[in-house]
DNA sequence: TCTAGTACTATGTATTGTCAAGTACTAAAT
DNA sequence: ATTTAGTACTTGACAATACATAGTACTAGA
């Protein structure tokens, strides 16, 4: 898969998935992987960045199946950000797709 | 506009526009700008890269309105590449959009 | 001759995804 | 008792690509 296409979009996907309900990192890797192929080492840095930027809050919880899980919870700022990025993506994708469709017909 | 979304997509747009007919750089900047906001200093490096990779051939032509123009012509390899990248983009965008639509409804 | 528009090039920077390796916990298999 | 597989997170070096800025140079009109 084209690596470049993912840039920025992974952030959007992570925001939307955490918005749904609180998630821990590993769970997110699996959830995002269902949509686009993605690497473990890609998701964790995004989570750290989005937390640093105030879009997520975190808390720890034990697990019976392995080590402690770090859960991510979206903040009000994160909700706003997810709406903005979603709008930008929708506008961008539809603009590109409109052109692409016209281009294919010719 | 979100810079990251453009990564990889600009290459696709440039390929499709040159596929239509031969173009020179400045013309491409304007054509791509109609689809997504883009910088001059972004398009020229893409043209150089795609030429180096054998997707474009170039030739020079004089102009009455300014300095010499460098025209880009798509090669057979470039045609193939444009088809591949287009397929990848279509698959990627529809996968993301399917998820996004489901996410918005909730 | 000065300015605006056209046309291309070069360079340094920032962002973000990938890869690889490492730590560490639990549970089941040997 | 030890090894292996699955879960869970972190870190650091690396690659790709878009942006900003600046510079060169040509033409035409004020």
Describe the structure.
The first copy, chain A, has 106 residues and is an alpha+beta fold. Chain A has one domain (4-105): Winged helix-like DNA-binding domain superfamily/Winged helix DNA-binding domain (Arc Repressor Mutant, subunit A), CATH 1.10.10.10. Helix content of chain A is 60%, strand content 13%. In chain A, strands 1-3-2 form a three-stranded antiparallel β-sheet. In chain A, a hairpin with a 7-residue loop joins strand 2 (56-61) and strand 3 (69-74). In chain A, helix 1 packs across helix 4 (76-105). Chain A is elongated. The A-B interface holds A 1-9, 11-13, 16-17, 19-20, 35-36, 85-86, 88-90, 92-93, 95-97, 99-100, 103-104, 106 and B 1-9, 11-13, 16-17, 19-20, 35-36, 85-86, 88-90, 92-93, 95-97, 99-100, 103-104, 106. Chain A binds a DNA duplex (30 and 30 nucleotides) through residues 3-4, 6-8, 10-11, 24-27, 29, 38-42, 44-46, 48-49, 63-70.
β-strand amount of chain A: 5-15%
Q: Order of strands across the biggest sheet of chain A?
A: 1-3-2
Q: Ends of chain A: how far apart?
A: 26 Å
Rg of chain A, Cα atoms, Å = 16 Å
Gross morphology of chain A: elongated
Please trace the helix and strand order of chain A, writing H or E for each element.
HEHHEEH
CATH fold topology of chain A: Arc Repressor Mutant, subunit A
Oligomer: homodimer
**How many alpha or pi helices of chain A?**
4
Helix/strand class of chain A: alpha+beta
Total number of β-strand segments of chain A?
3
- The CATH homologous superfamily of chain A is termed Winged helix-like DNA-binding domain superfamily/Winged helix DNA-binding domain
* Largest protein-protein interface: A-B, 33 and 33 residues
- Biggest pleated sheet of chain A: 3 strands, antiparallel
Examine the secondary-structure arrangement and name the CATH architecture of chain A.
Orthogonal Bundle
Unreliable stretches of chain A, pLDDT < 50, 5 or more residues?
Answer: none
**Helicity of chain A, as a percent range:** 55-70%
Mean pLDDT of chain A: 94
* CATH structural class of chain A: Mainly Alpha
